[in-house]
Write a structure and sequence with these properties.
Elements (H helix, E strand, L loop, with lengths): L9 H11 L1 H13 L8 H35 L6 H20 L7 H20 L14 H5 L11 H4 L1
Helix pairs in contact: 1-2, 3-4, 3-5
Length: 165
């Protein structure tokens, strides 16, 4: 028995390109939008991708908060092991979080929620990198959002001046 050939439709071609060559699909969709060829757009996949972009921005903010808070915990709980690397990570994450919030102002209303979500990962990061048990760190984040984002906030005992220069 021979399997009948199915003629490709515009919808099948759109879905196939979406699944087989995502980059080309994105370029094609951008071109169709640019030329206002609405009927040729792959709307279902386009909608899904636009929604995904918003989730990625939110996820990036949560991830950056996890890294920043984790490094602040390390800074506070292992003052003898502070390094320029930790300091650089803290500074870079602060700058990138502020930039992300400036580029996506609507995320500002979600930062407090994302901090709570990020804190569990922060504890794991700090515990894993310091070899201290997770139970050493508070169950909930003890730093305020203003402190976390302030370039003047470094928890625990003061750092030596050589490190902070």
């Amino acid at each position: 028995m021979q399997i009948p050939k199915i003629q490709p439709t515009a919808a099948n071609l759109k879905d196939n390109l979406y699944e087989t060559d995502f980059y080309t699909w994105t370029q094609e969709q951008a071109n169709l939008l640019r030329h206002q060829q609405w009927s040729l757009l792959d709307l279902s996949n386009l909608i899904e991708e636009i929604e995904s972009l918003g989730r990625k921005e939110r996820q990036e903010l949560r991830n950056r908060l996890s890294i920043l808070i984790g490094h602040l915990l390390k800074w506070e709980y292992q003052p003898g092991k502070r390094s320029r690397s930790w300091l650089a990570t803290i500074r870079i994450q602060r700058r990138d979080i502020l930039k992300l919030l400036n580029e996506n102002p609507s995320l500002k209303s979600q930062v407090e929620i994302l901090m709570v979500e990020a804190y569990e990962n922060s504890r794991d990061l700090a515990s894993g990198e310091t070899n201290l048990p997770c139970s050493i760190f508070p169950d909930q984040c003890s730093y305020s959002l203003d402190d976390i984002l302030s370039d003047r906030f470094y928890p625990g005992e003061p750092a030596n001046d050589d490190l902070m220069k």
